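queue> pop job 88
queue> type: inverse folding (structure -> sequence)
queue> payload:
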């Protein structure tokens, strides 16, 4: 696994890429407390979030007015939240908990990266 892949999975996990969803009071659990199904659901949701981010990135870069940029960011964030809510087996809160856990727990990061490699479409 390359550093690029690790960074890609981390970027996907935190994928509310234009501005994190407020996660006040959300505490990351121990990596061992998440089962394979939860990790799979997280990665599938992260891949959906990445699709939204990728769709909005060129539009955001092309926007010349700050108000337009802020509107696009808001729209993207709403679609990212919707993508997570539409994912099977995970809530937005759980998504954020797992995302937080992967940031601080190398074991969790490794598990997510492994699942990401398994489930991500080939480039």
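queue> result:
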């Amino acid at each position: 696994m390359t550093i690029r892949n690790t960074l890609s999975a981390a970027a996907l996990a935190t994928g509310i890429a234009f501005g994190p969803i407020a996660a006040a009071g959300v505490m990351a659990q121990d990596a061992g407390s998440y089962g394979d199904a939860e990790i799979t659901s997280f990665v599938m949701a992260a891949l959906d979030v990445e699709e939204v981010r990728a769709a909005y990135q060129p539009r955001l870069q092309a926007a010349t007015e700050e108000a337009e940029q802020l509107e696009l960011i808001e729209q993207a964030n709403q679609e990212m939240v919707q993508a997570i809510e539409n994912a099977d087996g995970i809530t937005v809160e759980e998504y954020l908990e797992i995302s937080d856990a992967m940031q601080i727990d190398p074991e969790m990061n490794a598990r997510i990266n492994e699942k990401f490699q398994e489930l991500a479409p080939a480039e």
